[in-house]
Design goal:
By secondary structure, the chain is mostly helical. It contains 15 helices and two strands. Among the domains are: 75 residues; 84 residues, Alpha Horseshoe (Serine Threonine Protein Phosphatase 5, Tetratricopeptide repeat); 94 residues. It is 73% helix and 2% strand.
Length: 382
């Protein structure tokens, strides 16, 4: 009986499915299944722990992956920037537009022409050699290049090689006539050809071949007076000079006035132009304008302009033809006449074979001026 009571007490304590609860704790109950003893509570706890650990590890992995991805991206960006910097330092970036072969050739020609012009402008033999190298490079790419051939013309003109200049001008004319369709030469061609004919005229005149010189001047006049050069100040100046030599004073004056119209006041700094303009004014009976030009040259451009001294002496000595010269009094006019006549006379006398008739004329003007001055003073006038 005692033994039965003990067994019942033991059985009650260890009976399956029963558990003892404590506050805050769970006591696992062992199960026996298929002859094996398992602790389900521990199994569940282990499973939960593994799940939590897995989630925790997964979260850490995600964070690590995010950090690694960001680091990898930053690394790639850094590598790309370094690569770009290296690329930039090694070579220029392409402009974007790829030039065709024709465009590249045109650009090269443009650059060579620019360089050639700069060398020609320097005007010395060394720079001419450099210019010619650039011109040859252009003609190798384009044997008909107009600008390049005109630069050769300009160079040979500066060198004084007029026949070489003429040969190039002829070549330009032939190439233009043979082009399809045929084209006319540019205005500047006529200007250079006019300079060639003018040189020929001066050359013939220096040899005493007057008729040959007149013939060449006629050709030069035709070129300088070409309609395509009607607004070219240099051509107008040369054209006016030829007209002045022929005695066509009004036409010459018109040409000179057009020089100022198209060339601006810069031409007033050219003493030859100002002298010739004064002469054209004088023979067009515009004496005051002529006097102004001659005084301008002596005062601002060339104090040694003997032509100006002579022409001023002449204007001031024309007592009967010119009643008054500006606001000058008789005494002032006489003083100017004497001053300029004496300067020119003394310069003429320095020559080994001076013009005695000219000196006699100047002495006559000086004498008349002195008489006029004495008469004006005796009358109490000025």
């Amino acid at each position: 009986m005692k033994k039965i009571l003990i067994l019942l007490i033991i059985g009650f304590v260890v009976s399956p499915g029963c558990s003892k609860k404590k506050k805050g704790k769970t006591v696992p109950v062992s199960e026996k299944k298929d002859g094996k003893s398992t602790d389900t509570s521990n199994k569940k706890t282990d499973s939960d722990n593994k799940k939590v650990l897995k989630e925790s590890n997964s979260g850490n992995e995600d964070k690590n992956n995010l950090v690694q991805d960001k680091t990898s991206k930053d690394s790639k960006d850094t590598d790309k920037k370094q690569s770009d910097v290296k690329s930039d330092s090694g070579k220029k970036k392409p402009s974007g537009k790829i030039l065709s072969k024709k465009e590249k050739t045109a650009q090269e020609i443009k650059e060579k022409i620019f360089m050639a012009k700069a060398f020609v402008k320097k005007g010395n033999e060394k720079s001419f050699v450099e210019a010619l190298d650039n011109i040859k490079a252009v003609l190798k790419l384009d044997y008909q290049n107009y600008e390049a051939m005109l630069l050769i013309v300009e160079m040979e003109l500066a060198r004084g090689n007029f026949e070489k200049m003429r040969n190039v001008l002829n070549r330009i004319e032939v190439l233009r006539s043979k082009s399809k369709p045929p084209t006319k030469v540019k205005p500047i061609w006529h200007l250079y050809m006019g300079k060639y004919y003018l040189h020929q005229a001066r050359n013939y005149e220096s040899k005493g071949l007057t008729l040959a010189g007149i013939f060449e001047k006629g050709k030069a006049e035709k070129e300088f007076g070409h309609s395509s050069l009607k607004d070219n100040s240099e051509a107008l100046f040369q054209y006016g000079n030829l007209l002045l030599e022929k005695g066509e004073y009004k036409q010459a004056l018109l040409s000179y006035e057009n020089v100022l119209k198209y060339g601006g006041n810069e031409w007033r700094k050219n003493w030859k132009f100002s002298v010739n303009l004064g002469v054209a004014y004088f023979y067009s009976l515009k004496y005051m304008e002529a006097e102004k030009q001659f005084r301008h040259v002596l005062g601002a451009l060339s104090v040694r302009c003997m032509t100006c001294h002579y022409n001023l002496a002449l204007i001031y000595s024309m007592w009967d033809d010119i009643a008054r010269v500006g606001n000058l009094t008789t005494v002032e006019r006489a003083e100017y006449a004497i001053k300029h006549a004496v300067i020119y006379r003394n310069e003429e006398r320095k020559k080994r074979r001076y013009d005695k008739e000219l000196v006699s004329r100047l002495n006559k003007w000086i004498k008349q001026a002195k008489e006029r001055m004495e008469l004006a003073k005796s009358r109490g006038g000025k």
